[in-house]
Design brief:
Radius of gyration: 27 Å
Shape: elongated
Distance between the termini: 31 Å
Largest sheet: none
Oligomer: single chain
Number of strands: 0
Number of helices: 6
Order of helices and strands: HHHHHH
Strand content: under 5%
Structural class: mainly alpha
């Protein structure tokens, strides 16, 4: 290729496999490492775009957020001092602290499981819808919210499942419109 014509439009460089130009600062001795890094980067991108990884990450993040919220709310929990003194009668300070920490741990576990389940359910459904539609827009989150809300309220009957689905879909739409910035579609 002529270096003086590389900047012209519609000029597509064609390189033999393994002979592509290296980024600035790398030598031919660095090529195997660079190619290995590019390969692993591709594997990582593929993994992060898979529904299983997205669902697992959303479930784990939901668990962590739920446990944290429970921890914060436990520190502000109002309890009747008379009731506490009756249930902790005859305990020393260490035993009282142990009982309080156990109660906090149980609350964190319960809240974390609930948030994790909701996060994993929503993220998994949204990923499946996005993969099926091959689009990334608000309808994916609204549809996932409707299905997830219905699934979460299924034990309360069909009316509650429909209401839960509509409420979760509306909440998903508000979050999507208010907080998540979407790229504007390109004008052709």
């Amino acid at each position: 290729m002529n270096p003086s014509t590389n900047n012209l439009p519609c000029r597509v460089p064609i390189w033999a496999a393994g002979k592509e130009p290296l980024p600035p600062g790398l030598t031919e001795e660095d090529r195997p490492f660079w190619e290995q890094n590019k390969r692993w980067e591709g594997y990582t991108v593929m993994a992060m775009e898979s529904c299983a990884v997205k669902t697992t990450m959303a479930g784990g993040a939901g668990f962590g957020i739920g446990a944290f919220f429970s921890l914060m709310s436990a520190s502000f929990a109002y309890e009747d001092p008379y009731l506490r003194s009756q249930t902790q009668a005859g305990m020393n300070t260490t035993q009282k602290a142990s009982q309080i920490f156990k109660e906090m741990g149980k609350g964190m576990w319960t809240s974390g499981k609930s948030f994790g389940k909701i996060g994993a359910l929503f993220a998994g459904i949204e990923c499946v819808i996005e993969g099926y539609r091959a689009k990334n827009d608000i309808y994916n989150s609204v549809g996932a919210g409707f299905i997830a809300g219905g699934v979460l309220a299924r034990n309360s009957g069909p009316k509650a499942a429909l209401g839960g689905g509509l409420a979760f879909a509306a909440f998903s739409a508000v979050i999507d419109l208010a907080f998540i910035r979407r790229e504007t579609p390109e004008e052709d």
